[in-house]
Amino acid sequence: MPRKEIKLDHSIEHLSILDENGRLDQDLMPDLSKEQLLRFHRGMLLARRFDERLLLLQRQGHIGTFAPVKGQEAAQIGAVANLKAEDWMLPAFREIAAILWRGTLPSALIIFNAGYNEGGKIPQQQRDFPNAVPVASQLPHGVGIAYGIKYRKKQEVVLTFFGDGATSEGDFHEALNFAAVFEVPAVFICQNNHWAISVPREKQTKSKTLAQKALAYGIPGIQVDGNDVLAVYAATQEAVERARSGGGPTLIECVTYRLTMHTTVDDPTKYRQEEEVKIWEKRDPLPRFQKFLQEAGHLSEKDIDDLEKEIKEHLDTEWSEAQQQMEKMGNPLDMFEHVYAQLPPYLQEQKEAFSQFIEAQKEADHA
Amino acid sequence: MPELTMVEALNLALKQEMEKDDRVMVLGEDVGVDGGVFRVTDGLIDAFGKERVMDTPLAEGVIVGASLGMAAYGLRPVCEMQFSGFSYFAMHQVEGHVSRLRWRSQGRYTVPMVIRMPYGAGVHALEHHSESKEIYYAHTPGLKMVIPSSPRNARALLVSAIRDPDPVVFFEPKLIYRAFREEVPEEEETFPLGKSRILREGNDLTLIAYGAMLHRTLEAAARLSEEEGVEAEVIDLVTIHPLDDKLFTESARKTGRIVIVHEAHRSFGPAGEIMARLIEKSFFYLEAPIQRVTGFDVIVPFFAREQDYLPTVPRILAAARQALSA
Ligand SMILES: Cc1ncc(C[n+]2csc(CCOP(=O)(O)OP(=O)(O)O)c2C)c(N)n1
User: Fold this and answer.
1) pTM reported for the whole predicted model
2) Integer CA distances (angstroms), A206 to A129, A201, A217, B20, in order
3) Which site among A125, A141, A169, A339 would you substitute to test the B interface, given the most B Cβ atoms closer than 10 Å to its Cβ?
4) Are A323 and A338 in a shared domain?
């Protein structure tokens, strides 16, 4: 009984279409209209400027801790641009670009980050999930929704975002395994931004790529240049089509980089070298895409200026809208809302007692 | 009316709900072909197919997490944790998401799902197969936590749990899975979640229990009546969370003497909360210190000693006499 080799025909593809200098591989260019390309651009620029605005608001004390997206706009927009309205999108906690693309208003995100649950309200027609803070925990939800889609014989697709650190969690493995076994229409988008707080990707896993983890589950996996919106789009398009036509799940690793801090309470200079950041700044997905659009004659300097102005005004309006809405959110009794379909008697009692206490307090203050 | 064991009654509830509503799904480890290790899901896969009765991979986190996704999608998943002792692998899904999605999404998504699990000691099981940790779930806002005590009541409760708009953790006392039979009507029966019930009326003493320990408590009550002429009121708590404190605080006002019985550990256990509410709401009616008969604050011992860990009829009687003597 000698030792034998079990032949496994495995390798991982890497896809890149648009390089750091905005040069394109014509053969790989997905079929996209000028309008679509400009929408991608607007989506990325809006996310970039909104992220900067959030950081400013955070530093001014208007909102709380959040996880900036800077650097990962292409990975998010390229992926989510493949979804139809009836598809499902499950973010982790850094998906500012994807969430805006799907129709959530900046004002809602501001309200959310200012500590009001109401900001997390998702419009009835929108099929996005709220932020999931426990790392990787949203992946099982995605496969459950996808199972529901399959059971109801619908054509919808579920797209789930997560980071490189998330691939170490049990939920990642359990979800991919489950999705593969039941062949559900789910697309797993890993944004490998090289860091899980202070732990570099190399210390997160010994795997050479994160995409190869798909092989263990018997599903397709691909690595793409995550700072190349066209590559992310093309790979996700394939995955979404496969899912929609009953071909089951796919894992996509988007190689990207978090250009700023993990969250607003984090100091990245403690654990990573400035030189590394410099290298990745050169690979920034936004200028690269702008260069390409300009060379293709789709976008002029003036167009960019106009768009910048339009976005600034839009964000100004959204900020005042958020402020106005937040002024109406002072009632502490709101915390009793949405815990159960119907407030159980003991909780009703707690609410009433607290309400009476507040009233008495008010009267005392006025007396 | 057929006489059923609790296992058969739970099976009937699942079968009838699945017949009525194609949103109801069953998933878990070995729940399909094998019919569940306790046979609660026996035959369901033949009746409803493997799309609705899913033998899942061995992974509690995704069983609960995927159930959440299904529920949010509009299905009514009933997932099984093979034993409550393994449900902790999914605890983060329960606490982090199942209990919170309604709140977090401000009502946009709801989680009408049931997490069933056998729990409790007394069947000579391996380690991790005998715990009674209902308090983990009862302490989590957004969840409901129920425990049946008889076949008929188990069937009615499971039907209500499946139809409930919120997530329900459904503990099944495996000690009484097959211990006795009870008539269970073919026609539909429900039992409202959040309500307790009085199983025996009395004016001298109130005994509060649930699950398997209820039967020892009823036995103690019968002996008190026969041997000492003491008439105890016996309350089956049924829902651990939200607690129906109206029933037991009213009973306390009538009897003034209370004994609480459960197999869960004593410290921070359900009895502690029940005592707190009794003190808040019926303090001036109490005529004696409240007694509790519970599992000890030790790891549930292996089966050679598990009967010593569990509340027994003599321990319940001793506590009752203590309450009566003060
Ligand atoms: C289960 C869990 N453990 C720990 C944390 C604390 N935490 C928040 S983000 C993070 C790192 C996540 O890294 P990654 O998945 O790569 O995503 P990224 O933050 O890089 O976008 C950690 C450890 C958490 N939120 N959830």
Assistant:
1) 0.95
2) 31, 9, 17, 50
3) A141
4) no
